[in-house]
Amino acid sequence: MSGKLNVVIAQHQGKNPGKRQLEEDIAAALIMEPGLSVSIVPHLYDLTETHTGTLHLRSVSGDLLVLAWLYPRAARWTLDRLGVRGKPGRTRIGAGAAEQNDTSGDDPHRGTPEKPTDARPVPDRFVFCVDLRDVEGAQQVVEEVRRLRDELSTPVVPLTTWIQGSPRPDQMRRFLNGDGTATPPAKPDAPRNGKRNGNSAPAGPAPLVIDDPTPRRWYPVIDYDRCTNCMECIDFCLFGVYGVDDQARIMVEQQDNCKKGCPACSRVCPENAIIFPGHKSPAIAGAEGEVAGLKIDLSRLFGAPSALEIAVQERDRELIADGREAVGMTKGIPKRQANAAARPRDELDDLMDGLDALDL
Ligand code: SF4
Ligand code: SF4
């Protein structure tokens, strides 16, 4: 889809001043860029179905760039869960940027193709996700936004169509001046193609800030590009988190039934399709490709018998904490894994431990 590029900054959960500063620097820098609509919402993962930030995200039409403190795959499928969909776009920020520069094929923005299990219609627009941990500074974002905007936008159409359920005006505030105006950054804008935008460039509208409080949450997010609908997760989880939709497709039905800190089902999913974006292990939190110099082969890391043993221990711990009986290997164990549980540790187990130890 062509038109104005929508940039959403999803804030960090904590109050780390460095992270907050980066968010504000990016917002302030993007004010000076024409052809954008910029908004700020709370942390993506904490948004509920009815949160004002969710309603705002759903109301945005057109191409969307989301800057979040999440791995891009985790951000994409968290957005999907919130009902914000589009063709997965690729940026030149973060891991895999070199591969993303490959524009061979008929669609330079294309991401992972849809799996047959995901038959839902995909809106005709791109959704780009950038992990703010990969961002070196506001200027890097500005340059990437310019590139995307220039590639995507030919005709410019009005951005925001406020639909039923959009945030009420009293639930929003404007960035910086609080009165609908924006103060440009004090410093002149950085050079662009040898010229300065300076203050002569027309500034875009002030970013919209939605900052309704959000409690921290913990629940699985399904990557439907990987999911094969095998139902192993629904059998394994004994807490009623999973269900099926009207197309008999697996879904996370009761998000808040999930036990905080427990990632057990992600270890038994044979397709590595279950993401816990807040887990300390990059592989469970949705990383793909290279992390800290290690090429992660997710298909080998997960589903290994040692992972099953850990998952069973984690599940038993939560059952006991709930006042229930531990069930060990007697319930919900995928048949293909049950007989392999006694395999000795190997280098993959060590690699997994090493990734956990990185605590990125
Ligand atoms: S275990 Fe994984 S692949 Fe199987 S249905 Fe659940 S999420 Fe999908
Ligand atoms: S992490 Fe544990 S409680 Fe949460 S959905 Fe998976 S198995 Fe169920």
How would you sum up this structure in a few lines?
The chain is 29% helix and 13% strand.
Question: What's the SSE blueprint?
Answer:
Layout: E1 5-10, H1 17-31, E2 36-41, H2 52-59, E3 64-68, H3 72-81, E4 87-88, H4 97-100, E5 126-131, H5 138-152, E6 173-174, E7 191-192, E8 195-196, E9 208-209, E10 221-222, H6 232-236, E11 242-244, E12 250-252, H7 264-268, E13 274-275, H8 282-285, E14 290-291, E15 294-295, H9 298-301, H10 305-321, H11 335-338, H12 347-358
Parallel strand pairs: 1-2, 1-3, 2-9, 3-5, 4-5
Antiparallel strand pairs: 6-9, 7-8, 10-13, 11-12, 14-15
Helix pairs in contact: 1-5
This protein binds iron/sulfur cluster (SF4) (2 copies).
Number of structurally distinct domains: 2
Strand line-up across the major sheet: 4-5-3-1-2-9-6
Low-confidence region ranges: 98-113, 155-201
Kindly provide the radius of gyration, computed on alpha-carbon positions and rounded to a whole number of angstroms: 22 Å
> Oligomeric form of this entry?
single chain
Number of strands: 15
Helix content: 25-40%
Relative strand content: 5-15%
What does this 3D model show about the protein?
With 360 residues, this protein is of the alpha/beta class. The protein is 29% helix and 13% strand. It contains twelve helices and 15 strands. The strands form five sheets. A seven-stranded mixed beta sheet has the order 4-5-3-1-2-9-6. β1 (5-10), α1 and β2 (36-41) form a beta-alpha-beta unit. The longest helix has 17 residues, at 305-321. The protein is elongated. Residues 98-113 and 155-201 have low confidence and may be disordered. The structure holds iron/sulfur cluster (2 copies). One iron/sulfur cluster is lined by residues 220, 236-237, 239, 241, 258-259, 262-265, 315, 318.
